[in-house]
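ARCHIVE RECORD
Type: protein–small molecule complex
Small molecule: flavin-adenine dinucleotide
Source of inputs: curated submission
Record status: active
Notes field left blank by submitter.
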Amino acid sequence: MQELHIDPGVPLASLAPLTTLRLGGPAKRLVTATTDDEVIAAVREADESGTPLLIVAGGSNLVIADEGFDGTVLRIATRGFDLTGSRLELAAGENWSKAVARTVEAGLAGVECLAGIPGSAGATPIQNVGAYGQEVSSTLTEVVAYDRRRGEVVTLTNAECDFSYRHSRFKADPAGHVVLRVRFTLEDAEGLSAPIRYAETARLLGVEAGDRVPAAQAREAVLRLRAGKGMVLDPDDHDTWSAGSFFTNPILDETAFAAFVDRVRERLGPDVAPPAFPAGEGRTKTSAAWLIDKAGFTKGYGQGPARISTKHTLALTNRGSATTADLLALAREVRDGVHEAFGVTLTNEPVMVGCAL
Ligand SMILES: Cc1cc2nc3c(=O)[nH]c(=O)nc-3n(C[C@H](O)[C@H](O)[C@H](O)COP(=O)(O)OP(=O)(O)OC[C@H]3O[C@@H](n4cnc5c(N)ncnc54)[C@H](O)[C@@H]3O)c2cc1C
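STRUCTURE (tokenized, with ligand):
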């Protein structure tokens, strides 16, 4: 077999510069892979030697402990954008938001409302990224991945990825696969977007939910809405030194939802109804941002170096000198405060490395 190049790597004093939160302690070794073969070689080497392995791409969904990571950190920096008709294949390391812009320029629909989501294409299936009425699971057809247990490259169909709200088989089993390539089939709607599903986007565009608009307009509207909430990366704006939404929107069964509505009425008045969206089979999704705000954790909440964003209650941010311990203390305070107020337990959306809520 041909000998593959493995970057010998370098010790890293701090993982903070690799994450959008700018948090995380040292790592034993940082390896950067720019081809699929280099990714596979580095993963094999770690697995065969029993070395703990952390995959990092854009670092926009990671909370890493102040103690750091005692193993190999593999940074995915592969490149590849291949558009044939309406079929798109992206290398894992491609910048997601730039790839979205290119599909819109090519007149294709299906991911235009996912513009502005930071990070890499390869991470999009991990938590089935979604925003403004779209999720990658609606257009993703296949994931090409290195199966760490079988030691071979496999192609997983959409159904085999077990997608659900901000979840997939990859998030459930982080040691299972490393994503190498992601394939999508987009819609050629002659430059129009997919039907606009999200009320806020429809309002800004001056259309009804379900209408189509030029895909470029849909993308720009989403970018405007996101920027207003501090959800587009800007190194000069500490409101974007976050991992995006820190908590997922809770999904409640009928009994839990009824108890929650009672708590809302007791606390906020008999006429107050919480946000409620059907989430399949007697289940209802409510809004984590609303819960946090109504529990008293308003925009800008916090005294220390970790605070709630001044633009969105769902983003916990590093104001410049925070540690992961500071951020987790704030996250626990918010989680516990929401539970005390409404009996609903919030769950973290970002991946925790060496730490937990
Ligand atoms: C300002 C801001 C706004 C955001 N808005 C949204 C939003 O609207 N919707 C949304 O869904 N998310 C959002 N996010 C979260 C984040 O951008 C996404 O989850 C994104 O897909 C993470 O990509 P990444 O490359 O940064 O992944 P990383 O943070 O580097 O990694 C995240 C996880 O995926 C794993 N991983 C990464 N690449 C691979 C790979 N190739 N193979 C296997 N595992 C891999 C990592 O090990 C880790 O567990 C936001 C984040 C920020 C900072």
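CURATOR ANNOTATION: The longest helix spans residues 324-342.
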